[in-house]
């Protein structure tokens, strides 16, 4: 696989690489976050390829806030005796937002395998790295 589209930044001690798709906006791109350590006559790149930590934080907050809202709305509906027919929007809207969050994450990770392969091919082409 030709490693076209891989970009990022780095120093002599660390690096961050990801696959850039010019026509796609992705908030959770698969990326390599790694450190570069001396190893014998060469260097060792130690890191992991995956979603950025900000993706887990964002989704945790997203689903946490919506779950809290659902719990409070459900409690309010039970305590006030509101029938489900009158308060269904309080339940449907957060559930729809949760479904949207799941769809957004799924859509962002649809090309994860291809992106990981491109990053590994880029490292193999540019610095003759091989995964261990």
Description:
With 132 residues, the chain is of the alpha+beta class. It is 52% helix and 22% strand. The protein contains three helices and four strands, in the order ββββααα. It has helices at residues 53-80, 84-108, 112-127, and strands at residues 6-10, 14-19, 31-39, 42-50. Strands 1-2-3-4 form a four-stranded antiparallel sheet. α1 runs antiparallel to α2. The longest helix has 28 residues, at 53-80. It is elongated, with a radius of gyration of 22 Å.
Summed over residues and divided by their number, the pLDDT gives a mean of 87
Largest sheet: 4 strands, antiparallel
Q: What Rg is obtained from the alpha carbons, in whole angstroms?
A: 22 Å
Computed structural class:
alpha+beta
N-to-C CA distance: 19 Å
Which spans have pLDDT < 50 for at least 5 consecutive residues?
none
**Which geometry do the CA atoms define?**
elongated
Number of strands: 4
Which strand order do you get reading across the main beta sheet? 1-2-3-4
Percentage of residues assigned to helices: 40-55%
Q: How are the SSEs placed, and which strands pair?
A:
Layout: E1 6-10, E2 14-19, E3 31-39, E4 42-50, H1 53-80, H2 84-108, H3 112-127
Antiparallel strand pairs: 1-2, 2-3, 3-4
Helix pairs in contact: 1-2
Relevant terms:
single chain; 132 residues; 4 strands
Summarize the structure.
This protein is an alpha+beta fold. The protein has helices spanning 53-80, 84-108, 112-127, and strands at residues 6-10, 14-19, 31-39, 42-50.
């Amino acid at each position: 696989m030709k490693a076209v589209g891989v970009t990022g930044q780095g120093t002599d001690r660390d690096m961050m690489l990801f696959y850039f798709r010019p026509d796609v906006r992705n908030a959770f791109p698969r990326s390599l976050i790694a450190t570069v350590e001396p190893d014998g006559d060469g260097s060792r790149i130690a890191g992991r390829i995956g979603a950025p930590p900000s993706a887990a934080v964002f989704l945790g907050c997203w689903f946490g806030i919506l779950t809290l809202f659902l719990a409070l709305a459900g409690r309010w509906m039970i305590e006030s005796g509101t029938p489900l027919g009158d308060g269904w929007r309080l339940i449907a809207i957060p559930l729809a937002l949760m479904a949207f969050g799941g769809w957004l994450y799924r859509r962002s990770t649809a090309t994860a395998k291809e992106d990981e392969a491109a990053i590994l091919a880029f490292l193999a082409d540019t610095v003759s790295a091989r995964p261990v």
